[in-house]
Amino acid sequence: MTLPRITTRDEWLAARKELLEKEKQLTRLRDSINTERRNLPMVEVEKDYVFDGPDGRVRLLDMFDGRAQLIIQHFMFDPAWEDGCPSCTAGTDELSPGFFEHLHIRDTSYAMVSRAPLAKLQRWKEKKGWTVPWYSSYGSDFNYDFGVTIDESVRPGEHNYRTKAEHEARGSDFFDYDQPFEMPGRSCFLQVDGRVFHTYSQYERGLESTGGSYYFLDLTALGRQEEWEEPKGRSTAVRPNMPDFAQ
Fold first, then answer.
1. Which are the contacts of 151, defined by CB distance < 8 A and separation ≥ 6?
2. Phi, psi of 207 (to 5 degrees)
3. What is the H or E stretch that residue 90 is in?
4. What is the pTM of this model?
5. pLDDT digits (tens, 9 = 90+) for 144-192
């Protein structure tokens, strides 16, 4: 049994106040990191990427839809797949019209880009009932240049700002998988007088920084109910047949 220890209200309150101090430290650290992120330099996107969209061919600048900023979700969808990545799909399911409206009020557009042909993206989008703009980068360098399609025959091995040698030095077998393979990511862009600049990209668990249901689950006693979490076995102590969301 790995459920929380039963205690008195006073003992719980003392432990909660102790944790609150650490949470406040985390909040201040997050604020500081956000400031550093905003102070990062930016790089002009000089390559003329062309994407397939529902209304025809578009360029990166078109995805801004007249706004100053653009967030692109690198949605995993290999050209050979018939269905989109389950994890990327789950994350997109959590996005609401209100979410997009709030971004638009702050002069920021949101779109998804995948390497699969447009017809497959549209079919999956229709099946899920999504309205988010979704473009195909099939046949372009976009996914390779932004580190979400891994193919050493096209680009030297690198992911999440680490080279293949750096991954191997850390004991990672990341590049041993059959290539090419897709990875998720998120990239941010700023346009100034028609010039597009890349300001930020994040990968792996960095993608959790935007919250979603995982951050709500982190507040609960059972957490995300995944195998890697501590303490072990907490979710199965309540529901023995609880699936592992990481599978």
1. 144, 179, 180, 181
2. -65, -20
3. helix 86-93
4. 0.87
5. 999 999 999 999 999 999 999 999 999 999 999 999 999 999 999 999 9
| C-alpha closest to that of 172 among 143, 141, 155, 150 | 150
Q: Identify the DSSP state of 202.
A: E
Q: Output the CA angle 146-147-153, nearest 5 degrees.
A: 115
Residue 136, H or E segment: strand 134-136
Do the beta carbons of residue 136 and residue 118 sit within 8 Å? yes
- Closest by CA to 146, choosing from 207, 195, 190, 202, is 202
Encoding tokens for residue 109? 């557009």
Q: What is the pLDDT of residues 47-71, one digit of tens each?
A: 999 999 999 999 999 999 999 999 9
Residue 245 above 50 pLDDT? no
More confident: 58 or 234: 58
- In a 13 Å sphere around the CA of 83, the CA atoms on its Cβ side amount to 8
Which H, E and C letters describe 4-29, residue by residue? Answer: CCCCCHHHHHHHHHHHHHHHHHHHHH
DSSP 209: G
Q: Rounded to a whole number, what is the distance in angstroms from the first to the last CA of the chain? A: 23
Most confident stretch, 104-108, 117-121, 188-192, 194-198:
117-121
Work out the burial of residue 81: count CB atoms within 10 Å of its CB; fewer than 13 is exposed, 13-18 middle, 19 or more buried: middle
